[in-house]
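chain below, 129 aa
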Amino acid sequence: MRLKLPLDWIVMDSSVFLVMYFTFIGWNKFRQLAPLLTNKDVSLIMRGRLYRSCVQSSILHGSETWPARKENEVAFQRAEMRMVRWMCGVKLKDRFSSKELRERLGIDDSIRITAEWAAMVWACAAKRR
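prediction:
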């Protein structure tokens, strides 16, 4: 499948482009798996595992080499929480906390912690070489 990106993304700062690009990739992966991730017959824990293994890993692919900026982290967290709410069948006006929704899905860590861990592993591997 070939991705079609908006032309105005090409002239952006490279880290902003990467964040938007991988968020775009994550949403595409989420939409591919939406029949399973939003199915009421599948338990929330299984949906959370599927989300972490497929969607979250595609969003964070290569993130260990990106510069860590607060606005990048916020953009990823915003996209992640929209997907989490959709999987749980909860609307924003229902006023559930992010922590509670993550616990329902069995997603203990946020995308920020996962990205930091991946960066640490990458730095250790680079240091060993």
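Residues 64 and 123 are 8 Å apart (CA to CA). The radius of gyration is 15 Å.
thats it, cya
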